[in-house]
Amino acid sequence: MSTTSLHVHPYEKRWIIFSIVLLIVFTAAVAIAAFALGIQVPSPEQRVDPRTVAVDPNSPWSNPGLREIAPGRYEAYILAQTWQFQPREIRVPVGSRVTFYVTSKDVQHTFKIQDTNINVQVVPGQVSKLTVTFKKPGTYPFICSEYCGVGHAGMFGQIIVTP
Ligand code: CUA
Fold it and tell me: Measured from the CA of 145, which atom of ligand 1 is nearest?
């Protein structure tokens, strides 16, 4: 037997191969989620002062709601607080691409829109930003999906996508 050969036990070799295959599978899963399924990872978009975010006239959340920035292109400023979202209802025509900017003025909430991939934590002092295109008309309820106190179950609203 040569003294320079590296002896790897067959059992160990199988585990090395298995680990490499796992890495490839996980990398593929992340790539599919990101590019094919369009999963968005929310990153801290902006910092705000939760004490003034709802009242400062320069803050878009002092007048929360929808802004049309181009034909079919919208920005929605959503203010979460115990225990409601402002606004409670948004109307857009079908095919609209809406970017949501959500923040909280008190405790931690979550903004989840049914039948979309939007489900983001809303942390006081931070702005969560996610974009969705509404391809089908209908009513898309949104809810707070994180327990935030006695009125948590009443924290909901809806997006109406008109034909
Ligand atoms: Cu807000 Cu639960």
Answer: 2
State in Å: Cα 109 to ligand 1 middle.
5
Residue 88 structural domain? 43-162
Exposed, middle or buried, 155 (CB in 10 Å: 0-12/13-18/19+)? buried
Contacts 24+ apart (CB under 8 A), 22-30: none
Average pLDDT (133-159) is 95
- For ligand 1, the distance from its centroid to the CA atom of residue 99, given in whole angstroms, is 21
| Residues 129, 110 share a domain | yes
Lowest mean pLDDT among 1-5, 118-122, 141-145: 1-5
Evaluate if residue 152 carries a pLDDT over 70.
yes
Judgement on whether residues 134 and 89 belong to the same structural domain of the protein: yes
CA of 25 to the centre of ligand 1 (A): 36
